[in-house]
Design a protein that fits this description.
The complex is a heterodimer of chains A (about 475) and B (about 100).
Chain A: H1 2-8, H2 15-44, E1 50-58, E2 61-68, H3 71-82, E3 89-92, E4 95-96, E5 104-109, E6 113-120, H4 123-136, E7 141-148, H5 156-167, E8 170-178, E9 181-188, H6 193-201, E10 209-216, E11 221-227, E12 232-239, H7 242-255, E13 260-267, H8 275-287, E14 289-297, E15 300-307, H9 310-319, E16 329-336, H10 345-358, H11 375-387, E17 393-398, H12 405-425, E18 433-437, H13 450-456, E19 458-463
Parallel strand pairs in A: 2-3, 2-4, 6-7, 9-10, 12-13, 15-16, 17-18
Antiparallel strand pairs in A: 1-2, 5-6, 5-8, 8-9, 11-12, 11-14, 14-15, 17-19
Helix pairs in contact in A: 4-5, 7-8, 10-11
Chain B: H1 2-7, H2 9-28, H3 36-55, H4 60-97
The chains are: A alpha/beta (about 475), B mainly alpha (about 100).
Keywords (chain B): Membrane, Transmembrane, Transmembrane helix
Chain lengths: ~475, ~100
């Protein structure tokens, strides 16, 4: 031992090269060592769930800042870094993610994008929500403005996924989850979308409830356009079901005597109440116009176009509102077609014959009450009568051979008179018209078929 | 410690070799070494530095450099001791023959 101390007293000169080596070693190794520790600390945190993780290494000391989603997770993360071999001290700057109270999450859709905002409980959930939104919403831009917060209700992710699916059914609108209550507003993309969303909301996970559902259905639109040049009436838009579709198509066929009905209607739910009756009434008004457009939007009816003469315009403006339920709005924009030039009696007769070939004046069966479906035809007859103000006109009634002759004779007379009354009410002088009834004495077709009988039941206008 | 050894083994082996050389020389070197008083003070200084290092008082890079320096110094001392013992053994074996 004595010898060792004696030798040791002579070891000091070696300290000088040792110090030089120390300096070089420190110079060369500090940065690689720090990089190595930093990489291994990050690797140790790979399986932990953290936000805003920041690792700074000085020498062998690690400064570790992060936001954790639970106290346990936070402690585990710190321990993971502490146990990295080579780490000397860990400066623990971790904290818990702030708790959101209430926990609010929003999905908002406008024309160009879907914006997700509010809070998500975990980075993984946040990522999945954005991914599902991108995938399910058909390529629309998804803006992620979500932050992270603790305090999400249980089964939040399931609820949010279900609601994201509903965002796809919206044209625009906003869905908000506040703790466990769900609020929805906006407009559905398609008819029936509102109902589909309401049905889907029944599948919300246990604990969640719908606070407000202000999703509006898109307007229920029915349109009809009467084009006198192409001689067509085009029906577009929606009808509630096939029965009403058939009723509307039949009514259109009866009302538009000279035009071909082009039926482009689609069946869809969401129609307002009394839709069928109101549309049929509105089509009756459209049939009295020379050219016109009918637009039924939910409970609003817009009718625009040219009436054939002033009296008809006033009648359409005033009369149609009565046919709609009280809650409906009626907006007529009726102008009067410029009066056609006067013609002589021969031309008038020709025009009457043409009109009465295309369509027939209809009456209630076995009675002399004019069917409202004939209003369009009568307007055309009145317009024609106005063009030859000096012609005297005989209105002749005919019936088929069914029933007794005396009844048919009386019925034909009454029907002819009913037509004259209609014309007079429209403003034509009564002394221009004479009513004549021929009963079944002048058939134009055989009375042995229904078709023939229908042809024989007729009103004729004869210029004298 | 094992991390320091594995990460800096080259430098530590260098320190050890330096110590071996220094120990080898010290056995036969003439002249006086450090005085006892100075040696004690140095021992105290080293003890304090070791204590500081173990207590992890100095933070960051300086703490790391201190650990590295002390480890290299330790290796140097070990090298010195082995070198001196080896040389002493060689000298004592050859002396009777001479």
């Amino acid at each position: 031992m004595q010898k060792l101390f004696r030798w040791a007293s002579k070891w000091w000169p070696g300290l000088i090269p040792l110090a030089v080596m120390w300096g070089i070693a420190a110079w060369n190794n500090t940065l690689p060592l720090e990089a190595d520790l930093s990489a291994r600390s990050a690797a140790a945190l790979k399986n932990t769930v953290l936000d805003k993780t920041r690792i700074a290494v000085a020498g062998r000391d690690v400064s570790f800042a992060a936001e954790a989603f639970s106290e346990e997770g936070r402690r585990d993360a710190v321990t993971a870094v502490e146990t990295v071999p080579g780490v000397r001290l860990v400066d623990d700057l971790t904290r818990l993610v702030p708790e959101a109270k209430p926990f609010v999450w929003n999905a908002e859709r406008d024309v160009v994008r879907v914006t997700l905002s509010g809070s998500a409980p975990l980075p993984g959930v946040k990522g999945r929500l954005v991914e599902v939104a991108r995938k399910d919403l058909g390529g629309i831009e998804v803006a992620d403005q979500m932050g992270l917060a603790r305090g999400a209700p249980p089964r939040f992710e399931n609820a949010a996924m279900l609601l994201l699916d509903q965002v796809g059914k919206l044209k625009d609108g906003k869905i908000t989850v506040s703790d466990t209550s769900v609020s929805l507003s906006g407009m559905a993309r398609e008819l029936g979308g509102r109902e589909a969303i309401a049905a889907a909301l029944k599948n919300l996970p246990e604990g969640f409830s719908v606070a407000t559902n202000d999703i509006k259905a898109p307007p229920y639109i029915f349109q009809a356009y009467k084009d006198p040049v192409a001689a067509t009436v085009t029906l577009t838009g929606y009808v509630p079901d096939n029965t009403i579709h058939a009723a509307i198509a039949t009514a259109a066929g009866r009302k538009f005597f000279g035009e071909k009905v082009v039926d482009n209607l689609k069946a869809s739910i969401g129609a307002p109440a009394s839709f069928g009756n109101s549309v049929v009434a509105a089509l009756g008004a459209l049939s009295r116009l020379s050219t016109g457009t009918l637009v039924v939007t939910d409970r609003e009816v817009k009718l625009s176009g040219d009436a054939l003469y002033e009296g008809a315009a006033a009648d359409i403006r005033a009369g149609l509102g009565k046919d709609f339920p009280k809650t409906w709005q009626y907006k007529p924009e009726i102008t009067v077609k410029p009066a056609a030039g006067p013609v002589d009696g021969t031309v008038c007769q020709q025009l009457f014959s043409e009109l009465l070939t295309k369509g027939r004046i209809r009456f209630e069966p076995k009675r002399a009450n004019i069917d409202p479906d004939s209003a369009g035809l009568l307007d055309h007859l009145i317009e024609t009568a106005l063009r030859c103000p000096n012609a005297m006109i005989e209105v002749a009634g005919h019936t088929d051979s069914d029933g007794e002759d005396s009844f048919n004779q009386a019925l034909s007379e009454k029907r002819a008179q009913a037509v004259i009354d209609y014309l007079v009410k429209a403003g034509l002088p009564s002394d221009r018209f004479t009513a004549v009834g021929y009963g079944s004495t002048q058939p134009v077709a055989g009375n042995d078929t229904d078709e023939g009988k229908a042809q024989n039941r007729r009103i004729e206008f004869l210029v004298r | 410690m094992s991390f320091l050894l594995s990460f800096h083994w080259g430098w530590l082996v260098g320190s050890l070799l330096l110590g071996l050389a220094m120990g080898w020389i010290s056995v036969v070197q003439r002249g006086s070494g450090t005085s006892k008083v100075l040696a004690r003070w140095l021992a105290v200084l080293v003890a304090v530095l070791v204590a500081v290092s173990l207590a992890r008082v100095i933070p960051g890079r300086f703490g790391y450099w201190l650990d590295l320096g002390l480890t290299m110094f330790g290796c140097y001392l070990v090298g010195c001791t082995i070198g001196a013992c080896l040389r002493d053994w060689v000298v004592s074996r050859s002396a009777p023959a001479a």
